Each structure stands twice: as structure tokens, then as C-alpha cells.
Amino acid sequence: MRARERANIPEKCINPIVLQNEVTSYLHWSLLLCFILENDRFRQWYYQHFIQLGSFLYSHVGSSITKIMVDYLEHVEDTFRNSILLKHCIILGYDDLDKNDLNDILCYKLCQGYFGVVYLDEYFLPGKRSYQKHHFVHPTLFYGFDSLRHRFMCIGYDSQYILVKYELDFDTVREAFISGAAHYKKGAVYAEKEVVQLYLPNKQGTPYIFDNRTFFSELTDYVFSRSNNEKLYLFQHCNTLEYRGIHQQNVGLSVTDEVLLKLQEKMLGVDSIDYVAVHILAEHKRGIYNRLKYIYSQSGIPDKLGGEIDKYEKLVHQLEVARMLFLRETLTDKGSQLHKIVHILESTRKTEEEVLIKIINSYHERH
């Protein structure tokens, strides 16, 4: 960075942010939504996305265990990096940066209204689960700084997998970034080409208009476990760097069936599923419920189906119980509540299908 640019950096800058809890399953979604959902113009855009789920099975090299990965059937570049949400986007790899320039670049771009997502080695980050234990390269969102205190304002996971705000001092960021360059190939190979991502939100223009027809088309695909080939290709392609031996993709409600199979394997001692899979099921149902409430409030769902939305709300609460039980299982490694978790997922899976089919049929009858 040139001396003139450094001279133009103020002592302090904090960009507007919201610690959203809509999507917290994976940081490649949740961090960006913290500045996107800060702008109410993009709320309807959010309701139009994150409707469909996908999963695939994969195996690590040399392992006979087939694991499951669950995520939203979205693609980061296709979903986020577009002119509706962003005015500008800069993606930098390790080869594009001088490691000693990172802090200056972040401060300079933050002052221009950008938000930064940077892959750091969490071995050096206090409050992280990996702190002083093992090297783990993971993204952090930067939304501000205070140069007098030598601190960045950040968002990321804490040791309990909760999305929180925290501060990092300049030296820690520099050290964690340098260490990340040495360890990213173990679990974060995609960081090589996008270790620093700078996003400038599009705060002007026409508000996004929610479209009921598109929503119900996506919801129908979810209920009947189908999707277009392009979405499936992007879903698999964007995960091939991190996961090997990908096979048996599923979408929609059939993802829950696959999760149930893996939970039953876990009861037999096979470690083929992690906490995120159950977390995202609970999170997804809460998101669908919020969308149904929104459409209902706009008279897009008839009053007579209000009771069905209430039923859906109950299953959201049940899945939240299952999520918390599985989180405790993950943190304690006891396995004593797996039968209860399976029972909840089986029950809510049946209820969800029944409720959503009624709501979908009602929509198609009126259109």
C-alpha cells in the first residue's frame, strides 16, 4: 500500500452490521448475511433464497466410513456476488498479497464501506475452539477498526459454535494470517485463491421484490425432493475441493431421510455425521416458517391455513430441541440422547410433508 493511502486512513471506522441469527450453520453464508441483512431492502431477497437443501455422501481417503454433508442448495458466487447485493467485490489469493500489507488493506477498504472476510489460523485467536490447541484455518468477518487501540471489530464463531462479535488486535491478525498460509491446505484449500474477500454492499437502487410464484416453485421442489441439474452441479462443484469421493446426492425432504440413516449409524458407533447436519435442519425449518409467516401476512396464504402454519411452528420448536440435544452430544461425546433425536426427526419429517403439501396445493388451486 502506498504511503498516501495509509495517510488517508482515519483513526477509527465501524461499518453498520447486524449479528443475524437466520443462517449460522456455515460461515460462507452467515458472515455475508451479517452485512446484507443489515439493509432492510434485502430482506425479501433473503426470503427468496435458502429454501432448498442438498446433501451428499463422501469418504476421506483411506477411510471406509461414508459421511454426510448437508447445506443449502445455493452457490456462493451465484447467490451473493451479484449486482443486486453488491456494488463491488474483490477476491484475493495468497499470491496476490504481501502478508505485511493485510492490516493496511483491511483498514483502507473498511473506510470505503467494504466488509472483509479473511481466512485466519484460529490457533492464534482467543475464544476459538482451536485456540492454542491445533491449527484450523477458518474465515472471520471484519467490519471495523480502532487504530488507537490497535483492534479490529470482527464476527465469527466462539468455542460453542455461536456467532458472536469480538475484537482482535492488529498483531494477532497478522500472525494468524501468516500461519494460515502455512496450514490452509489441511481443510481449507479453497483459501488459496480467496483468502481475502472484500465486499461493498449496494445500498442504493430498487428494492428487491419477493415473488410468490418463485417461492412456491422452490418449496414444491423441496417437498418432492427434486432440483434442476444446474443447481446440483454447482452444489457438488463448489464442494469438490474440500470433500473427496462425493456421491449419492440428495435434495429436499429426502435429506432428512439421509440424516436419519446416519444418526442410526451413529447409535451403532459409526461416526458418519456431525452436529452441523442437525443444526442446518433445524435452522432451515425456522427459515421456512418465517417465510410462510411473511407470505401469510401479505395475504399470499388463505386464513383457513393459519392452523397449518401453527403446526409448522410447533415442529420448528421440536427440531430446536433436537438441535440442542445433539449439540450437547457433540460437546460431551456421550451419545445418550440419540434415540430421542431420531424420534423427533422422524415425527417432524412426517408433519412437515403433510403441512407443506396442504399449503402448496392451496396456492396452486388459487393460481
Beta-strand content bin? 15-25%
> Shape, please?
globular
Order of helices and strands: HEHHEEHEHEEEEHHEHHEHHHH
- Termini distance? 58 Å
User: Helix share of residues?
Assistant: 40-55%
What average pLDDT do the residues reach? Answer: 89
Structural class: alpha+beta
Structure summary, number of beta strands: 10
Rg, Cα atoms, Å:
21 Å
Low-confidence stretches: none
Number of helical regions: 13
Major sheet description: 7 strands, antiparallel
Question: How would you describe this structure to a colleague?
Answer:
It is built from 13 helices and ten strands. Helix 8 packs across helix 13 (338-366), helix 10 (254-267) packs antiparallel against helix 13 and helix 12 packs antiparallel against helix 13. It has 367 residues and is an alpha+beta fold. Strands 1, 4, 5, 6, 7, 8 and 9 form a seven-stranded antiparallel beta sheet that branches. A three-stranded antiparallel beta sheet has the order 3-2-10, sandwiched between helices. It has helices at 3-7, 27-36, 43-48, 76-79, 102-111, 170-183, 191-194, 212-223, 229-237, 254-267, 275-297, 306-332, 338-366; strands at residues 12-14, 53-58, 67-72, 86-92, 115-121, 137-146, 151-157, 163-169, 196-201, 247-251. Strand 7 and strand 8 (163-169) form a beta hairpin. The longest helix is centred in the last third of the chain and has 29 residues, at 338-366.
